[in-house]
Specification:
about 60% helix; 3 helices; mainly alpha
Amino acid sequence: MRDEGVVRLGKPIDNSRVVREVDPRSRREIWWLILLVAVIAGAAGLYAWPALEIRRAGQTAIDLDREKERLLEEQRKLNLEKSALENLSRVETIATRDLGLEAPAPEQSIVVEVPPPLPPGALVADETVPARQARAQERR
């Protein structure tokens, strides 16, 4: 083997018997570095967490608004369907055409008049009270 251009200085060094001692300062510095990184990571987490929660709450609000609009539209459609199903001329047509029913004769009809509703807080006098008082006076 030819060593061209390589200059050798002295004899080779044997480091096999050298024992490396651990420097207590370097171990302490490593622990301080780890602590510093942990504190910085914790601070970054504490800074980012509320922002993420705000974003999540905003997205939830948007989702709820969409759901509300969808339900309102469904309610409108159901109200239209209900009013169409409650249409009396439609019910009469189905009764006569599909079910074969006929309108009752005038002598078979009974008209029941419903009194108008009373205003809130109005009191109705009991018709039986004066009659009871009159009977009680007759007995005396």
